[in-house]
Amino acid sequence: MATPLRLTFWTRFVEVAVLAIAVCFSIGASSPTSRLADLDHRLMCQCGCSQLLGECDHVGCPDRDKELADLSADITAGMSDQQIFTAFTAKYGAVVLAAPTTHGFDLVAWIAPFAVFGAALLGTILLVRRWSGVSLVRAKAAAAGANQAALDPAESERRERIRKDTGMDGGF
Amino acid sequence: MAAFGSFALLIALALAVYNLLAGTVALRLIATGQPAAISPERLADTARRAGIAGFIAVTGAAFALLWSVFTNDFSLTYILEHSNRALNPAYKFAAMWSGQEGSLLLWAWLLAIYGFVLRLRHKTDVKLYAYAGTILAGVQTFFLLLLCFPASPFALLPAVQTIHPLGVGPAELLTLQQSGVVPMDGNGLNPLLQYPEMVIHPPMLYLGYVGFTVPFAFALGALMMRYPGEKWIKITRTWTLVTWLFLTCGIFLGMHWAYAVLGWGGYWGWDPVENASFMPWLTGTAFLHSVMMQERKGMMKSWNVWLIFSTFLLTLLGTLLTRAGLVSSVHAFAQSSIGTWFVVFMGIVLAVCIFTYIYNHNHLKTEHHLESLVSRESSFLFNNLVLLTACFVILWGTLFPILSEYVVGNKVTVGAPWYNRVAVPIGLFLILLTGVGPLLPWRAASLKSIKKNFILPVVALWVTVIVCFAAGVRPWADGQFSSGSFYALVDFAVSAAVLTAIISEFLRGAAVISRQTGRNLFSSTVLLTRRNTRRYGGYLVHIGVVIVVIGLAGSAFNRNVESELAIGDHLNIGPYQLDCTGFTQDSNALYNSEYAMLNVSKGGKYQFQMLPERRVYLSEGQPETMVSIHSTFEWDLYVVYEGSNPDTGHPIIKAILNPLVGWIWAGLIVIVLGTFIAMVPSITPATAALRVPAARVAPAEPIFKGGD
Questions:
Q1: Predicted ipTM?
Q2: Taking the model in full, what pTM does it have?
Q3: In b/e form, how buried is each residue of B177-190, taking b as 16+ CB within 10 angstroms?
Q4: Which residues of B touch A96 (CB under 8 A)?
C-alpha cells in the first residue's frame, strides 16, 4: 500500500510544481513601456551593427530611431506581438527578428537542440543501464569462479571437462 | 625582406613536406618490418630534424613580417593595409595578426613552436612522438601551403611586383615612394584593434586553437600505432591542460575587449566568432573530464579519441567560419576566399580519422563497464553529454542562418534571445553537475552516502533562495514574470550549492590532515592540495567557473540611462549621480577625440571622475568608443560617450550599471590558479611525511579517496 501512496504524493507534487511554474510564466499584465523594452530586445537593429535594437549604441544610427518609432507606433495602435513581428518582417525582412519564429522551418531551430539533448540523455541512461547489467553478470560470474576455486581439485577438473565437452566455455 | 620572408616560407614548406613524407615512410617501414636501403629509425630522425629546422624557417618568416611592419615597408600589400607610420609600436605587433595572411602566419608559427618543443622531447617515447610529429607536419604543410600560395603575407603591390619581383630594399623603397608608386603611409590598423587586450588576446586564442593540434596528433598517432595502455594520455595531459588554459584566457580576454571597446555594455553577444572559440573549449573540457575515466577504468576510449578529433576539427571550423566569410561577425577582421582550402583540408582530416578509427577500433575496447547510474563514472558521462549538447546548440545556432537560407531561401537571425532560451538552461544543468560529480564515489553510491554528502549543499541551495527572495531577487517584478531574474535566482541557488559541496570536500580532507598532523586548517588545506594537485586543482577550477557564472547572472539586473548633458547637468543611475563638469576635444597624429568630464558622487559625496571618450581615427575615418569603467565588487559603472548632438554640441552619455561583472574576471583568476595547481605534480606521501614536524608525526598517513 505504501508505494501507490508515495506515487500519488509525487504525482501531486509534480502537478503543483508545474502549475506554479506555469503561473510564474503567465502572470502579470504588461505596460506599453515594458512592452517596448521587451520587444526592442527581440528585434535587431538594421544598421549592420549586429546588435539588438534596444542595445544599439550608435548616435546618429540611420535605422535605430526609425525602427523604435515604428515599434512605439505599433504598440500604441494596440497591435499584438505577433502582428508587430509580421509588420517588421514585411518591412525589413526576416533578419529583423532576433530569434527564429516558431513557424515553418524556423521551428526546427527550436526543436533540434532539445530533441538532441533528449535523445542523448535517453541514450546515455540506456547505455549506463546496459553497462550496469553487464557488470552485474560479470560480478556473478566472478563469484561463481570463486566458488569453483573452493571445490576440490578432482571435482573442479570434472566440471572443466564437462564444460569443454559441451562447448559451454565458448571455445572450440 | 619580402624575398627573405617568402623564401623562408618556401623552405619551411619543403621541410614540412619532407617531415610528413619521410616520417610516414619510416613509420610504415617500422610497422611492417620491411627491409629498406636506409634504417627507418634514421629516416624518422631526419624527419624529426626537418621539423626542428622548419621551426627556424617559420620563425624567420615571422621575423621578416615584423621587420617589415616596424620599417614601414609599404611595398607589401599586407603592411600597407594593416599599419601606418604613427602606429604605436605595441600595436605594430598586433598588425601581424590583424589580417588574414598575418593571422595564418601566426598560426603556422605557433604550430612550429609547439612542434619544436614536442620534437625536442622525443626521448619520452620515440615512436609515439615520431607519429605525433609526422601528423603535426601534415597540419603544418596545409598552413604553409596557404601562406605560400593564396594568402602570402609577403605579396608585393602589383605596381612594385612588375618592377621588382623579388621585393625592394630601403633605398629603392624611398625612390618608389617619391615617384608615387608606393604610398608614403599605410591605411593603419583597424581602430577596434588598437586596445591593449588586442596585443595578447589573439595570440592567447591562437595558442589555444593551435595547441589542440598536439593532443589531436598524439591521439591519432596512438590509434595508428595501436599504442598499448593509457600512457599517451598521461603524456598529453599537460599539453591539453596548457592548451585549454590558453583558450580559456583567450576567450575571457576577448570578452573583456568586447566589453571595453564595443561600448554596448555587454561582454558576450553570441557572435559567430565568439561561438567559434567556445565550441572547441566545450569539447576540450569534455575531453579533460572523460580521459580520467580512461586513465582510471580503461573506459570511454573510442569516445575520448573522437572528442579530441572533434575538438581539432572545431578549431578548423571556427577558422573557416570567420575567415571564409560564411557568417558575419563584429570580431572578424579578415575574410577571403580560402574557405575552399579549409573545407578540403577538414574533409581530409575527417577521412583520415574515420579510416584510422575503423581500421584500429578493436584496439579501443573498453576494459570495464559502469556499475551504477549513480556514481562518479556516470556523472562524467552526463557531464560529457551536457557539454556536447551545449556545443551542438551553439553550432546549430551559428549555422542555422546558413541552413535556413539553403533550405527555404530565407536568411534568419539567431541572436541572444534564442541562445538565452536554449543554452542557459543547459548551462545551469552543467553547473549543477559540477557540484554533484565530485560528491559521488567511484563505482556506486549508497543512499546513505548520498544523504550524507548532499544534505549540506541542498540546505545551502534553499537558504540562498530564501536570502535572494528577501533581497528582492524574484522571478516576477511589478506583476510581470522575468525569465532573466528566474534564471539568475536558479543560478545563485545552484552556485551556492556547488560552492558548498566543493568547499566541504576541501574541509573534510583538511580536517583529517589537521587531526593527524596538528596543523591549522589553512596549512592542512594547502598540504591536502599538494598531495593531490590534480584533484584539488580541478576543484579550484570548478570554484572559478561557479564564480564566473555568478557574475554572468548579474546581467539579468543591468540598468541603463541615456541623456544629453550640458555643463552642470547630471544623470542618476543606481546610487550614483554623474555631474557633467565639461566636455572638450583633442587630437594627435592618429585620431581626433571628444570626451566628457563627469564627476561621480554617491550620497552627495564626491567619489571619482570618469572620462568617457570617442575617437575618430584619421587613417580610416572610423569612430571608436573608449568606455570609462569603474569596477567594484558589487557592480561596474560603465559610461559611454555616444557622440554629440549636432544642434547643441552637447555630449550624449549612456551610463550602465552592470552588477557582478568583476566576478567574471575574478573567476578567471581562480580558474588560472586551479589549472596551474593541477599541472604541478603532487608530492608523494613519503615526501609529505618528511615535512611533518617530528613531534607530531602521526602513526600512519591518512587515507584519502583516490582519484580526481
A1: 0.78
A2: 0.85
A3: beeebbeeebebbb
A4: 413
